[in-house]
């Protein structure tokens, strides 16, 4: 049996290539302030998290789902008496998120540019289709990727399918991202490499234990370390 040879690298987008979670946190603080007279901030935030988790199966990931969860939470904590003006404020907050300029993370563009051409690069991200397309276009990195996959969820089956479609199968592929739950663990379960690039903010739903015993797990401090790691893996396996 031949030794798998790294040919394909998948990149997560939000909080891997550009900032994302910080805008959700800022909007949550804005939302909590809107409902200050109806409940403690911690309780409103807890209700919002539960609503968001309930709604993932119905609305998926992203800003539109988050906005609907804020509206649902406002109705809940006000016992159905939320003013129309507050609903309008929530919708405005969602629109602000959808129009916010992207903020690339350190070393993102230079790293993707350095690896482009030498490997097949695939952007694999969850969220709203239009929003993710907007952010990719603003990033200036769109032309560096050989393929873009905007998916409803990230599982081992998702990675097996994508890396077989755009590469030589998961055994010859690597997934790079900030979420252990979505980017790293399922990629390793599919048979690929899982590279964790921690971000200071991670949504509670994305928390998972690091698969430290897995031979194909690696952690790097930032994307600037990725090219050297890729070279090492490509050389030694």
From TrEMBL:
GO molecular function: hydrolase activity
InterPro entries linked: HAD-like_sf (IPR036412), HAD_sf (IPR023214), PGP-like_dom2 (IPR023198), S-2-haloacid_dehalogenase (IPR051540)
Family matches, as Pfam families: Hydrolase
Keyword Nucleotidyltransferase on entry: no
Lineage top rank: taxon: Bacteria
Keyword Ligase in annotation: no
CDD domains: HAD-like
Protein keywords: Hydrolase
Record-given protein name: Hydrolase of the HAD superfamily
């Amino acid at each position: 049996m031949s030794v798998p040879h790294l040919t394909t690298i998948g990149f997560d987008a939000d909080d891997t290539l550009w900032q994302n979670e910080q805008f959700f946190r800022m909007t949550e603080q804005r939302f909590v302030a809107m409902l200050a007279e109806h409940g403690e901030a911690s309780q409103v935030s807890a209700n919002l998290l539960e609503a968001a988790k309930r709604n993932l199966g119905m609305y998926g990931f992203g800003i539109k789902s988050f906005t609907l969860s804020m509206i649902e939470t406002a109705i809940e904590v006000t016992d159905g008496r939320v003013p129309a003006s507050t609903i309008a404020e929530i919708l405005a907050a969602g629109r602000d998120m959808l129009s916010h300029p992207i903020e690339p993370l350190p070393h993102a563009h230079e790293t993707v540019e350095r690896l482009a051409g030498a490997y097949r690069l695939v952007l694999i991200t969850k969220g709203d289709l239009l929003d993710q397309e907007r952010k990719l276009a603003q990033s200036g990195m769109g032309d560096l990727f050989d393929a873009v996959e905007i998916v409803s969820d990230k599982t081992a089956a998702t990675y097996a399918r994508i890396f077989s479609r755009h590469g030589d199968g998961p055994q010859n592929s690597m997934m790079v991202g900030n979420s252990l739950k979505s980017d790293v663990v399922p990629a390793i379960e599919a048979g690929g490499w899982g590279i964790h690039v921690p971000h200071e903010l991670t949504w509670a739903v994305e928390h998972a234990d690091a698969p430290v015993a897995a031979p194909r797990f690696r952690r790097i401090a930032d994307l600037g370390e990725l090219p050297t790691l890729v070279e090492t893996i490509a050389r030694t396996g």
